[in-house]
Amino acid sequence: MELEQKAISLLRSLIETPSLSREENETAELIEGFLKEQGAITQRLGNNIWAKNMHFDELKPIVLLNSHHDTVKPNSGYTNDPFEALEMDGKLFGLGSNDAGGSLVALIATFLHFYPKPDLKYNLIIAATAEEEISGSGGIESLISHLPQIDFAIVGEPTQMNMAIAEKGLMVLDCVAHGQAGHAARNEGVNAIYKALKAIEWFRNFQFPEESESLGPVKMSVTVIGGGEQHNVVPDECRFVVDVRTTDVYSNKETLEVIRSNVDCEVKPRSTRLNPSGINQEHAIVQAGKRLGVKTYGSPTLSDQALMPFPSVKIGPGDSARSHTADEFVYTNEIKEGIKLYIELLSNVILKEA
Question: Strand 152-155 to strand 62-68: parallel, antiparallel, or no bridges (unpaired)?
């Protein structure tokens, strides 16, 4: 009960301290101070804070508990002050309360529960990280090289305490179809728009041969298009953008190779770093969840899992449908129940007597 109350109190403080992506300095200080008050020895890189369990043993495997403390900007629809931790009818309102403050403080409480225990089968590291909302390079990606080798991670995001065992990756492609300019009144030139249409039709209809068991097919959507400057000039260039949601069957680079081999246009990814993820369903943490009746699923939404080169699951209190909405909230009971389930999950894996 004491840990639950401390977690909710910490969340109130986090809500009332603005922490937009790349501006998380003050919440980093809050989290660092809180962990130190509980006796943990913290480390910091930029606005990322982490700590190890008291009896950390270099010979044992390591579980990473991770969530983020940055937020998006509040939208114009707020009727409450987004930076006021308002509690009403069992709900705690405020920017970042649901995404992902509830998960973060629940994981911190879970870490502190196990922190002093001397005979764990696994080490624990808690990491409160920055820049998740913008997939920034100064968040979890920058921290990983400073951590010991991680065996698996629990990523805290609002999933109603269901367990995402796979997550779609993302590539944004800038595509250019090249033609040859000519006068529209004569049969001149090569119309780049027509070439683009052919490629767009391929993106619309192509189905990758293999489909993910938990995530379904790779999804490709053309979202932006532009070409031509004058009504009487055949355009020599047509640009369009494709949003590609990749699955654990193909890496981003493999997906890109398939695309480039099928379309007659220039294809440049803005990045290939946001990869799909998946964990074997026989993994101990997944099996522990199933024994506890936790529902598993494949997640279409992106998180810091995309930047983790080790197995991970995504699970946390709250509901992703509330994320980035006006008057965002999390139920305080969701946080309490989340702490309880996190502890039960890990107890099934890291306690010697389990």
Answer: parallel
